[in-house]
Amino acid sequence: MSSTWHILGAGSLGSLWACRLARAGKAVRLILRDKQRLSSYQGAGKLTLFEQDKTQHYAIPAETFDAQGPIHRLLVACKAYDAAPAVARLAARLANGAELVLLQNGLGSQDEVADQVPHARCIFASSTEGAFREADWQVRFAGHGFNWLGDPTNPNVPSWFADLHDAGIPAQWSLDIPTRLWRKLALNCAINPLTVLHDCQNGGLLGHLAEVDQLCDELADLLRRCGQPEAAHDLHEEVQRVILATAANYSSMYQDVRHGRRTEVHYLLGHACRTANRHDLAVPALERLQRRLVDNLQARGLRSD
Ligand code: NAD
Ligand code: KPL
Questions:
Q1: Does the pLDDT value for residue 169 go beyond 90?
Q2: For a disulfide at 12, which of 31, 73, 97, 131, Cβ 3.0-4.6 Å?
Q3: Which atom of ligand 2 is nearest to the CA of 246?
């Protein structure tokens, strides 16, 4: 079985993982969207990683979807809304028992991907690392953090897990990955949309704590109702702690909106509202928030799905 790491989505997080794995001597290949992207990358000839005051270049090989050969290990680093269609295009190349690591924030996209590739193992990740693109094929490692990986259907640690340690990617195997993803989703729902609506840094929400608390009440009820009581534990306190600790930062959703990019709202607030609905749980504040956010995105000419 090949030990090559194929990376689908050479954006911020995908490039960050690709560069660190390549630096550790692991075999890495980028899968790019089409011939145009491939020739743009070949023009640059390398990925560039900026880390504090260091700049390093990695000439990682790249291919398009049409390349030949089976894939045994795939890091899916697209946005949540792109993940399933992108993986579907690769399904025929995924070997039986291939392992996919899904880096998407929020919930819902993981199941969409798994539906496309029943013959593969899907490993979910929750990342608090931060990276952004400075230009095509150039990424800045902006915030140190941590990665939890886990498989809700299989507790066994994958054979390649030590690669992450070798590459300096801080990671732990988690037996409760859905709880971690739900907790992060709840934090994102309580903070990110309000930063867009109030046009503020995370710390600006200190002036809107009653609104934040009301959302946390409903999110904690939802987490308990859908079998995630641990993710509900002390949610209000943690949301306030995150607001204070990241007071000077702009949330990821705020940054998407500011740059005119589609947000991942469908897999964050949208997922929370759909799940509440499925459980017959009334969440009026979350639903009002979703309506206000959708109106706000549409008024800016951005996609709201
Ligand atoms: P990004 O937009 O920087 O990168 C996504 C890449 O996927 C882009 O280069 C895009 O061209 C590529 N892509 C999309 N469809 C494709 C296709 N069909 N074929 C090939 N490539 C395709 O996004 P990102 O910031 O790296 O985020 C990826 C995921 O990681 C998101 O779900 C995000 O929420 C999550 N995340 C990101 C960060 C971060 O700091 N950037 C931190 C934690 C979690
Ligand atoms: O994860 C975040 C984001 O901006 O997406 C924070 C600010 C930590 C919480 O929502």
A1: yes
A2: 131
A3: 7
